[in-house]
Design goal:
about 300 residues; alpha+beta; Jelly Rolls; 8-stranded antiparallel sheet; 4-stranded antiparallel sheet; about 45% helix; transcription regulation; HTH araC/xylS-type domain-containing protein; Tscrpt_reg_AraC-type_HTH; DNA-binding transcription factor activity; HTH_AraC
């Protein structure tokens, strides 16, 4: 399953439907692919969603940081083989290029807002707020204020530099409100070789997924046997190295189909697939439509949704 489509500087109302099943309804503003004057820290996207029961997002890797805040309901966040059960007034941080997933509760599905951001000072800011790879979940009783900020962003009708400056101000206001009442939760990790090898393998995949690498290449890079690597991935991440690599590549392809006009063959190559037909089969197996069909549906939905939001 995948999250809301990421469009170039577009404002949409969305109803995510995969395999004929509606997963969530919400609003999103996306700026990915648009140049920013603020290289140190800038917004990539933000949104607000009401999720249906058992709405599953991922496993997927995002190119930037993403903060989710739960306004109501509950669900689970999974990363690095750990599962966090979260509810109202709690949230979670998704780190760049780290495979993770999250699912709404069956009985009480969550409603959440999110904001994606990047830049050279993003990590420093998050560390100052108490976040780290060991502290990815948090609590904060400021939902109404954060929702007000995100709603103001989504309703903004500005453009150009004026819009960029406004969004920058709202981004800092978001962090200001959050940090005022923030309490991060620290997870104690085992400092053993198992976690070391898995982390090293994940880093190798993030750096080389576009190359024609194999599971054996990953095992060689971290200097362990292929069978032991597979055992570690199943133990720590509950997936195989080949599935992890395939999911990572398809996540990148999913993003590029939404924010670029590159041919499918080029996207396949950029994501480590030497044969476009192999890529198309893998993508269809995961998303249930071909890459071309997925891109076409995004663009058609984008036009309809922009028309709808302009009427509001």
């Amino acid at each position: 399953m995948y999250d809301l489509c990421y469009n170039k500087h577009s404002k949409t109302t969305c109803s995510v439907c995969i395999g004929g099943r509606h997963m969530e309804k919400g609003y999103t503003l996306t700026l990915e692919g648009k140049k920013s004057h603020f290289h140190e820290l800038h917004m990539s996207f933000c949104g607000h969603s009401v999720c249906y029961p058992d709405n599953s997002i991922g496993p997927a890797a995002h190119p930037c940081y993403v903060l989710h805040y739960i306004l109501d309901g509950k669900g689970q966040y999974q990363v690095d083989g750990r599962t966090y059960s979260l509810g109202k007034n709690q949230g979670f941080l998704i780190e760049p290029n780290v495979m993770s997933s999250y699912r709404s509760d069956h009985e009480d599905p969550w409603t959440y807002l999110w904001i994606g951001f990047e830049g050279s000072t993003a990590r420093t800011l998050l560390e100052a707020m108490g976040f780290s790879h060991q502290s990815l979940t948090y609590s904060a009783n400021c939902g109404s204020k954060l929702l007000k900020i995100v709603t103001a962003i989504l309703k903004s009708e500005l453009d150009g530099l004026e819009q960029e400056l406004y969004l920058q101000a709202q981004l800092f206001q978001f962090f200001s409100c959050l940090s005022h009442d923030l309490s991060t939760d620290r997870t104690i990790f085992r400092s053993d070789k198992q976690n070391y090898y898995v982390r090293a393998a994940e880093e190798f995949i993030r750096e080389h997924y576009a190359d024609n690498i194999t599971v054996q290449d990953i095992a060689d890079a971290v200097e362990i046997s292929r069978s032991y690597l597979s055992t570690l991935f199943q133990t720590v991440l509950h997936t195989s190295p080949s599935e992890y690599l395939a999911d990572f590549r398809l996540t990148r392809a999913h993003e590029q189909l939404g924010i670029t006009d590159d041919p499918v063959s080029k996207i396949a190559e950029n994501c480590g697939y030497q044969n476009p037909l192999v890529f198309t089969r893998a993508f269809k197996k995961k998303v249930h439509v071909t890459p071309s069909q997925y891109r076409k549906s995004i663009r058609e939905e984008r036009k309809i949704n922009i028309q709808q939001i302009r009427k509001q």
